[in-house]
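FORM 7B: Structural annotation worksheet

SECTION A. Query
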Amino acid sequence: MREVDDDESSSGGASVFALAARTSQRTAPTSLPVSFDRRELNQILRVYGRKVADGVWRDYAIDHLKERAVFSIFRRTSEVPLYQIVKQPKLARRQGAYSLVAASGQILKRGHDLANVLRVIDKPALRVVA
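SECTION B. Predicted structure
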């Protein structure tokens, strides 16, 4: 190791702080995962509750990922999801933040308004009246 003069130590300390500041700017801030807010969950669970009461659906799962939040709906627990309600904020200005995806992977509906997207699966069942 080499010896440092008093003049170099004072400037060396400043360069360490400058280096620390530069490296902290390079690292991306840790972003929180995307999630559904209370209003969105109320809308989703209202539809889900009606379908559970009808005996059509039985289980659900919520995933909060880095770029999207997913509400998966299952007919039975051991199956693949029947539907997935996906929230992707990056698509909010383009196609809409919300999408409804079928089990086959086909996107059934996209939109800016969650209520309009949920309308596809919230159609009333037709019943025969005798």
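SECTION C. Observations
The first helix runs from residue 6 to 26. The two ends are 97 Å apart (CA to CA).

SECTION D. Sign-off
Analyst initials: ____
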